[in-house]
């Protein structure tokens, strides 16, 4: 499939050098993209700026109707989009793969359409009448990563539109096809210029982030790029939501039954092959059940098929790109060399495609790069602890703070411990469960601002106070 890398003012643009989008499972390219360049980036912002007054002037109810129609479009085209997503991203059609991602995108869109921005009354008496209104900001720039491209795009786009903003979205050069196709399809219900998209080389990113007509940037990606985006946004004082990297810790208390928690731990860590911002990336297990948890995880992994995502029985696919594949391989090799014990996996599966097996490593410790760095792949370090305070201290020791979890039969105690984790979301006996009605975001170097629910929606508006 060949797609345009620019949808501007309602229409796909032609031209641009052709980029082959790699299929991470190997073989033929996933598709071809005519890359957007600087002129397209500027035109996309201009189109969004021009469309803003009329879109903002529509009633919130009218916008909600159109956002709901976007959900209809996603549902009607889910299978086509899921296949495209599998081709470029690698995730399987089944399991928590492409169909799941498209289902989530539709569900998030529908839920967002049901939200309202309230008018608050601070005082209403003979002395004063003071009301607080939420107004749209203008042009919102959405920049997305390659791990959940469709769903994360929807997380940015739909609340921005509902709140009355217009949008330019820029998907990752690794996974632009599903987003560009979705944006094309959504033009059937959205007025021209309300939702624009540009995809191509990373170089168009800075053109967009520095543009004076962009009012807000919603960025999801690495901490390093997030920091560059923030610097670029500073001269024109843009608002920011930064959803950045994490290195989530999970702490398993000695009262757990290893067999009972293995599945939850497995999917907490391995969802999307570990390429998930709020996946469990460091597992701390009490000495008394350490071997039991390790064995239960290895047993569970044995039943999970890693294969080409287009095969209906694959449950995990390849790593998405060569850079990430090499990073995971390097971290595992370094851990082996530093005394970690391989429980399963640990060697690339084949030379065709970026297939890497589920890899669990025991006897891991702080100071190993596999523990201290975000691996963003299917390799989980398991760290033995005896003193809970020490485990908590290690969990909180890194500069990132996206998610965390406590696993225990005593949920009240686990909740108290979860309160001590330095992160935006902490779960008890699960990890990474997100919902469209619950705010989600990071602390420390995992970013700031939240998405989802009314908390997330409000970030796409500014307060306007009227004293009358
Ligand atoms: P990345 O930072 O390399 O790229 C993210 C996006 O930024 C891409 O679209 C890329 O083209 C663009 N970009 C690159 N340089 C830019 C620049 N100078 N200016 C503007 N845009 C630029 O991240 P990635 O490798 O695609 O994604 C993986 C990372 O994303 C991981 O660290 C992961 O934890 C994080 N992530 C965080 C969340 C969250 O909600 N906190 C969700 C998903 C992924």
User: Which ligands, by name, code or SMILES, are bound?
Assistant: nicotinamide-adenine-dinucleotide
Q: Provide the low-confidence segments as ranges.
A: none
Cα-atom radius of gyration: 23 Å
Number of strands: 23
Average of the residue pLDDT scores: 97
Highest-level CATH class of the largest domain: Alpha Beta
Helix tally? 15
SSE-based structural type: alpha/beta
CATH topology of the largest domain: Aldehyde Dehydrogenase, Chain A, domain 1
Largest sheet: 8 strands, mixed
Overall outline: globular
Find the CATH superfamily of the largest domain.
Aldehyde Dehydrogenase, Chain A, domain 1
Protein name: Aldehyde dehydrogenase family protein
Family: Belongs to the aldehyde dehydrogenase family.
Active site: 243
Domain Aldehyde dehydrogenase: 18-464
What does this structure look like?
This protein has helices at residues 38-57, 60-76, 78-89, 98-113, 149-162, 177-186, 204-209, 223-233, 258-270, 290-302, 322-337, 369-372, 388-396, 411-418, 453-458; strands at residues 2-4, 6-8, 11-12, 18-21, 31-34, 120-124, 129-136, 139-143, 166-170, 195-198, 214-220, 239-243, 248-252, 280-286, 341-344, 359-364, 379-385, 400-401, 403-407, 425-428, 443-444, 447-448, 461-467. With 468 residues, the chain is α/β, with parallel strands linked by helices. The protein has two domains: 2-244 and 446-467, Aldehyde Dehydrogenase, Chain A, domain 1 (3-Layer(aba) Sandwich), CATH 3.40.605.10; 248-428, Aldehyde Dehydrogenase, Chain A, domain 2 (3-Layer(aba) Sandwich), CATH 3.40.309. Strands 3-2-10-9-8-11-12-22 form an eight-stranded mixed beta sheet, with helices on both faces. Strands 15-16-17-14-13-19-20 form a seven-stranded mixed beta sheet, sandwiched between helices. A three-stranded mixed beta sheet has the order 1-5-4, covered by helices on one side. α2 runs antiparallel to α4, α3 packs antiparallel against α6 and α4 packs parallel to α5 (149-162). The chain is globular and about 65 Å long. The termini are far apart. Bound molecules: nicotinamide-adenine-dinucleotide (NAD). Nicotinamide-adenine-dinucleotide binds at residues 143-147, 152, 170, 172-173, 202, 205-206, 209, 220-222, 225, 228-229, 243-246, 277, 374, 376, 402, 442, 446-447. Keywords: Oxidoreductase. It comes from Novosphingobium beihaiensis. Belongs to the aldehyde dehydrogenase family.
